[in-house]
Amino acid sequence: MGKIAAIADEDTALIFKWIGIRNSFIAKDIDEAKNILMDLSNKKEYTLILITARIAEKIESIINTIIAEKEYPLIAIIPEIGYPVYKKIDPLRELLKRTIGVEIKTSR
Amino acid sequence: MSREAVRVTRMELLKLKKSLEVAIRARNLLEEKRNVLAMELLDYIKKMGLAQEKIDERMKKAHDAFIEAQMVLGKMGIRSAIVSISPDRFSIEEKYRSIMGIRIPILNLIENKTQIPCNFLSTSSKLDEVAFHMNEVIKTTIEVAEAQATIKKLAEELKKIKRRVNALDRIIIPRIQNRIKYIEERLSEMERETIFRIKRIKYLLEKRKITEIA
Q1: What is the pTM for the complete model shown?
Q2: What's the whole-number mean pLDDT along residues B110-123?
């Protein structure tokens, strides 16, 4: 049975904590986000980490590495509560390009 | 194995022809498997895109409800309405299924039905809406995560198959074909030599016979 964690801005993390994702972390800057993500990805108890898009955009390379190298945790990118429109990043694109040799977009 | 190491016998030729047949059949099967997996992969990519769209839509609704709640309660009001942190209400159960022998994860969201804590004196129905939409976001995120894990597995398997098909196409099959060609050429050469030798012996014997008679 795996747990869910979240790395988000203050408002989204608060909402996540409120609705029942106890391990919701507020990342104020890139370094903090990187450290939290590395820390969470090294713990075996987490199956899924939710990251808000504006943070994910800044730590895209680490996300891509974790997705490519580790089976778990899985990483899902979601919009922030205050910024529902966001720049789409596609963490599987690189992996698919490298493994299949064809560029396929996974997000619309 | 170099050409010199090949034993030039009919038995070896038959063995190699059998190996070639097996290698070609294996290549065809791998290609078939590759096609099926590629279709599955595209299917999951489509599913993931649709789930992502659903998340965006829900998040937009949650955002609108959140803004409205903020207008009614104010930023500090929201914080006092969300009085305490819920215990962990979600966990994920991991199961597996198999697509053509590949272990694909299935994720089930286990939702603990405890009430979301709320300060009833200073709350708004809009906050309930936020909680409802966010709950849906988490449910759909599980679909995205499952699709992501499946896509990753399928892509890795496709890479392996591609490597195997390439090895069969470019190394193993051509090597067997070359060996077959070499053995066939050597055998026919040996056959020609034998025919020539027999003719020569026949000629010499006939010549000796004629001299003896004379």
Answers
A1: 0.79
A2: 70
Predicted pLDDT at B121: 60
Which of B56, B62, B112 lies closest to A81 in CB terms?
A: B62
| Closest chain A CA to residue B59 | A84
Q: How confident is the model at residue B85 (pLDDT cuts 50, 70, 90)?
A: low
Spatial CA neighbour of A17 closest among B53, B138, B122:
B138
Q: In B, which residues are within 8 Å of A17 by CB distance?
A: 85-86
Q: Do A47 and B92 touch (CB under 8 A)?
A: yes
Taking CB atoms and an 8 Å cutoff, what residues of chain A touch B95? none
Q: Are the C-beta atoms of A4 and A46 separated by less than 8 Å?
A: yes
- Are B135 and A19 an interchain contact pair (Cβ–Cβ within 8 Å)? yes
Give the residue-averaged pLDDT of A42-70. Answer: 90
Mean pLDDT of B166-193: 95
Integer Cα distance of A50 and A74 in angstroms: 9
Q: B92 and A3 in contact by Cβ < 8 A?
A: yes
Q: Considering only the beta carbons, identify the residue of A1, A2, A22 that sits closest to B85.
A: A22
User: What is the C-alpha end-to-end distance of chain B, expressed in Å?
Assistant: 57
Span A75-103, mean pLDDT?
A: 74
* Euclidean distance between CA atoms B130 and B125, whole angstroms: 9
Ranges of beta strands (E only) in A1-108 are: 3-8, 23-26, 46-52, 74-78
Which of A9, A48, A107 has the highest number of chain B CBs within 10 A, making it the mutation to test binding with B? Answer: A48
